Description:
By secondary structure, the protein is mainly α. Helix content is 71%, strand content 0%. The chain has helices at residues 12-29, 36-43, 47-53, 57-84, 90-101, 109-121, 127-135, 137-153, 164-183, 192-210. The longest helix is centred in the first third of the chain and has 28 residues, at 57-84.
Amino acid sequence: MDVRPTARRGSPAKRAAITEAALRVFLREGYARASVDAIAADAGVSKRTIYNHFRDKEALFATIVAQSSAAVAEDFAEIAARHLDAPADAASALAAFGREWTSPGARRPDHGALVRLLMAEAAHFPGIIRVWLDNGPEPVRRGLAERLRAMADRGLLDIAEGEEEDATGHFVALVQTPATNRSFFNALPLPEAEHREIVHSGVRAFMRIYGPR
C-alpha cells in the first residue's frame, strides 16, 4: 500500500483546514474509527473536497504524520542552534540542549499523541513508520551528528572521525529515550526535577564516553 503524502492541487486554506481537522479526529477516534465523513464535517468541507486534496484516508494520515514530524525537526534545529552551534563547554551545552529538547510537549503537545497512534497502527500500516522516520527522527539525528562532529573538531568532545553517528545514537539512548519512555511520549506527567535528573544523568554518562581526554 502506498502511504506517501500526496500533493494534489487545491486551495491551500482548505488543505490546511482538512489536515487540522483530520488530526483532531484521528487523535480523538483513532485511525481505524476515524471516518472521512467525520473529518469533512469537522473541517467544514465536503467529502469530495477531501478527495480532491488526498488520494484516500491513508494518504491523509501520512500527510499529517509528515507535517507534524517535519515541524518537530524544525523545532530541533532551532533548539540545537541555540545551544550547540558555538558552545564554550560541551557538558553544559548538551545539558541545556537536552532539557529543552526533551521537555514533555513543550511546543507540539499533539505530536506525542500522534506518535503513540502511529505506533499502535504500525502493524497494520507499516509504511507510516517510514514516513515518520524520514521527516522527523532521521533529520534530527543528522543534525545532531553534524553538531557533535563540529564540537569534536573544536576539541570539546573526543569523537573519532566517522563515529559521530554512533555518538548521536548514544546521546539519544542516554538522554532522549529515558525521558520519552518515562512520559510515554508525553502521555504521563514528568516532574521537572525528575526530568532534569534524567537529562543530566544521561549527559554525564555521555561525557564519560566522549569527553575530551
